[in-house]
Amino acid sequence: MDKLLITGGRPLAGEVAISGAKNAALPILCAALLSDEPLVLTNVPRLNDIGTMLKLLAQMGVKVERDGDTVTLDAKGLDNPLAPYELVKTMRAAVLVLGPLMARVGHAKVSLPGGCAIGARPVDQHIKGLQAMGAEVQVEHGYIDAKVGKLRGARLFTDMVTVTGTENLMMAACLADGETVIENAAREPEVVDLANCLVSMGAQISGAGTDVIRIRGVAKLHGATHRIMPDRIETGTYLCAAAVTGGQVRLTGTSTNYIDSVVDKLMDAGCEIGSERDAITLKAPARLKAVSLRTAPYPAFPTDMQAQFMALNVVADGTAIIRETIFENRFMHAVELIRLGANIRIDGNTAVVTGVDKLQGATVMATDLRASASLIIAGLVAEGETLVDRIYHLDRGYERLEEKLGALGATVKRVS
Ligand code: UD1
Fold it and tell me: Rounded to an integer, what distance in angstroms lies between the CA atom of residue 332 and that of residue 346?
């Protein structure tokens, strides 16, 4: 199993290009299921999760072609609406095939994702929404087995803000009879990117980006070309890494749009941020100031940046209170950061982080995607060598991580 060996102590400096957003690409790949004409996507990141999704779509009968960061999907021959456990267990986002399959062929058999390292993560809201649209859903033998003659538009309300839940129901509603209204919808930029792609395929959607989305069903969606938005979490992760190492970087192919809450905290920590149309610059202060934060649905601070900001606070001046409100078990990185010398106290969903002057390199274990990123960031500033084990999590969500960090002057090596 691969590990990453990081030699800490060098400030990040230089320029790096940000990739397309994993969490926008995954639902948009599934949108191809809604049409029998080709969907051409550009700026698709090369990530294991994307590979898993393409494999799943191919198993369903979708023709998949990949050329660099362009992916062409043709779902004319869709004939097997099944998402097996073997694929869903490695990537929960596979549940995003459920809505489009129900809309296009009226049948889907999708493995229940089960729990994951950061929490229980049920999909009851996806199921409840489809039932309200007329679907008959059985959950048996670990599978969601859903059937419908034709989905009909409905008024849907989700009990909590759910990103993939909103995306699944929005895709389902595109080909339903009549109007669907999703209330308490997720406002995440990735939901808007999906809506933009669906609209370019002929869908009638308004309100994406607000908490009420209206979809008027149409008979058919056609082919389209769509560019995936930049990855705001990858952007935030590199900004954090530069900040923690006392560096100065320019990130291209991205912008401060959609990361206001993250930029705001970085400025509170003492960083200078410059915003260009298609790039962001960051200059770190001599010593970062501690910044408290609370995760919540967009536009509030993203849970996917919580671990990276914990790494930032670990070496900042002062004490930060971090509250995680989205996932019940998302502090697994804390115990590993403590192995590097961090001073962190956990009490339920609250972490109290008191900055220390120095971290020392050690062997640490990655537990999930963003936890891995926080350990890398800490390793970049720790004295000596840090060995991060189980980095397969990172390959799910960060494109060419060691190459990009290397381009910024970090000493990061993949070892077997
Ligand atoms: C998406 C993101 C993930 C991010 C998360 C929160 C993708 C592919 N993944 O995950 O990176 O961390 O949003 O911003 O876009 N919930 C239920 N029942 C449901 C659905 C959700 O109880 O049917 C709960 C979850 O357990 C969680 C909360 O709602 O506590 C929010 O989860 P949700 O927004 O659905 O996360 P994902 O869409 O899985």
Answer: 10
Question: Residue with the nearest Cα to atom 8 of ligand 1?
Answer: 23
DSSP reduced 3-state for 37: coil
Q: Residue 120's pLDDT is what?
A: 66
Say if ligand 1 is within 6 A of residue 23 CB.
yes
pLDDT band, very low/low/confident/very high, at 115 (cuts 50, 70, 90): low
H-assigned helices in 109-162: 124-132
CA distance 218 to 203: 7
Q: How far apart are CA 154 and CA 135, in angstroms?
A: 12
328 lines ligand 1 (CB under 6 A): no
Q: How far is CA 84 from the centre of its chain?
A: 22
DSSP for 232-245 reads: HHHHHHHHHHHHHT
Q: Is the pTM of this model over 0.85?
A: yes
DSSP one-letter string for 260-285: HHHHHHHHHTT-EEEE-SSEEEEE--
Q: Does the beta carbon of 167 lie inside 6 Å of ligand 1?
A: no
Cα-Cα-Cα-Cα torsion 172, 167, 369, 377, nearest 10 degrees, comes to 160
Rounded Cα gap, residues 240 and 305, in angstroms: 9
Distance CA 365, CA 391 (A): 8
What CA–CA distance (Å, rounded) separates 340 from 160? 36
What's the whole-number mean pLDDT along residues 223-245? Answer: 98
59-67 long-range contacts, Cβ below 8 Å, gap at least 24? Answer: 59/84, 59/87, 60/33, 60/97, 60/101, 62/32, 62/33
Residue 164: count of CB within 10 angstroms of its CB: 27
Beta-strand relationship, 39-42 and 3-7: unpaired
